[in-house]
Amino acid sequence: MRAWLARHGRAGPWAAWLWAALCVLGLRLALGLVLAGAWWVLRPYLPIGAGSVWQQAALDMWVRWDAVHYLTLADVGYAGVSVGDTVFYPLYPALVGAAAKLLPVTAAGLLVSTGAAVAALAGVHVLAERHYGPAAGRWAATALAVYPTALFLVAPFTEALFLALTVWAFVLAERERWPAAGALAGLAALTRGPGLLTVPALAWLAVTQWRAAGGKAALAVRAGLGLALAAGGGLAFLVYRQAQGWPPMGVVLRAYSGVELLNPVRGVSYAVAQVLRVPDLPTVLDMASAIVFGGLLLVMARQTRWRNGAWLVYFGLNLLFDLSKHSLTAAAWQSLARYVLVLFPAFIAAGDWLARQTRRVRFAYLTFSSAGLLGLSALYALWFFVG
């Protein structure tokens, strides 16, 4: 494999797709065994499931927390769920629902997430390779695949689909294919609410390209169309919610999930107070994620090699949004350890750094990160909240 990649170097995107597929295949198999093993050991203590032993071990163990809501939406649609489920954006459930016409809904969710994870890792690989070379591309994809919460990339959650659409939007935008980039960014905004935060980052890139091109009108028109498409995706769902007569998103989040948005300073102060008062696993994971990725953002802003304006805008706005959340019923930054998976610039910088390290450093990173991934995956199977 390494010899093949060395021979082909930058031979188009196929090397990136192959590497991504191998990473996701390894992730799917390894975590599938971990989840099935956790179920087998503890099956005497778990509620008796309705399906066969194979179905419970191979499929049902992946359905935890928000995955329950996504699969329910895929199965019955918005008309068949409570108002609390209307905060979940529609693209992922729609794709799973389409696949569920041929497969059981859980298998359909895993299929959609697996395909999206391959596309996400391939996009990260392509973008990192474009800026830092083939080795950085491979290590960026690998760093993401073994990240301790990477199980959410192949579980029935939206992270893989959102990341795939977003990172390929950046790939196409850098190639000045703005209408296609905007369409993908708009679909990302139909996958998760923070997709709208991609618009300022793409606008930064558009202005940079326009200035470099001497103010060409044609580029401005294409970029403007792309940005309009990107903004339209997220706004379309908000308009649809209003047309259905559902309560505003913030009201529903507070009433059904106990989540509210604050200014970042208050969000950070509440999170620090909570981790000092109740240092349980979810709170510690979220705090560690905030520290690590906040530090990476500062490092990238200071280092010329990683100081990409559009990436930093995307990274900074998404992290700021996550730090502004406050949960009234769970860890203050509920699910932050999962949300950082979509901060692709951090993994690109990590991949570039790893590509220039010794084998011993790379081995230490892979060992430590993979151990965390396997441990959190086993806890996830047992209904511990890890993201």
Explained architecture:
This protein is mostly helical. The protein has a domain at 247-356. It has helices at 2-8, 14-42, 53-58, 66-76, 91-99, 105-132, 134-145, 151-154, 159-174, 178-189, 198-212, 217-243, 249-257, 264-277, 281-302, 309-323, 336-339, 344-355, 359-381, and strands at 259-261, 325-327. Strands 1-2 form a two-stranded antiparallel ribbon. Helix 9 (159-174) packs antiparallel against helix 10 (178-189). The two termini are 33 Å apart. Mean pLDDT is 92; it is low at 4-11.
User: What sort of overall outline do the alpha carbons produce when their principal axes are compared?
Assistant: globular
Which residue ranges are poorly predicted, with pLDDT under 50 across at least 5 consecutive positions? Answer: 4-11
* Spatial order of the strands forming the largest sheet: 1-2
Rg of Cα set: 21 Å
What fraction strand?
under 5%
Q: What is the succession of H and E elements? A: HHHHHHHHHHHHHEHHHEHHH
* Count of alpha/pi helices: 19
Q: Based on DSSP secondary structure assignment, what is the total number of beta strands?
A: 2
Structural class: mainly alpha
Determine the fraction of residues in helical runs and give it as a percent range: over 70%
Mean pLDDT: 92
